[in-house]
Amino acid sequence: MLAQINRYAKLNGRLAANSLAGANSALETYFPEFAMNFDAIESDPNRLSGQACIRGTRITVRRAVQLVAQYPDRAELTSEFPELTDDVLNQALNYAAAYLDDHVETWQAA
């Protein structure tokens, strides 16, 4: 799935200017079976310098992904952060995955 999306993005420029609405629109247009709902994610230039955050909180998507890695037990994570429901965490993980590039670096021996 991500390989197809990345191929589309590389062939046709940026995925609708890196906006949440633009990304969803492009996904729905070109890959309707892979369109994701990011209604729990918001980006406001006046909040945390426009970083993608969990709606209604000051928890960035990056921090939510870090918390998933740090708490192997989701029940413990959601008990400490009740606003991070399973659906919200899944959206954060999908959002992060959608914006990662499958870029391969080639290194030459020195």
Would you mind describing this structure in some detail?
The protein has 110 residues and is mostly helical. It has two domains: 35 residues, no CATH class; 61 residues, Winged helix-like DNA-binding domain superfamily/Winged helix DNA-binding domain (Arc Repressor Mutant, subunit A), CATH 1.10.10. Helices cover 46% and strands 4% of the residues. The chain has five helices and two strands, in the order ααββααα. It has a two-stranded antiparallel ribbon. 16% of the residues are buried. About 6% of the residues have low confidence.
- Shape by Cα distribution: globular
Assess the beta-strand content as a share of residues: under 5%
Major sheet description: 2 strands, antiparallel
Total DSSP E strands? 2
Number of helices: 5
Question: What are the low-pLDDT stretches, counting only 5+ consecutive residues below 50?
Answer: 11-17
Q: Under CATH, the topology of the largest domain is which?
A: Arc Repressor Mutant, subunit A
Instruction: Indicate the percent of residues in helices.
Output: 40-55%
Strand order of the largest sheet: 1-2
H/E topology pattern: HHEEHHH
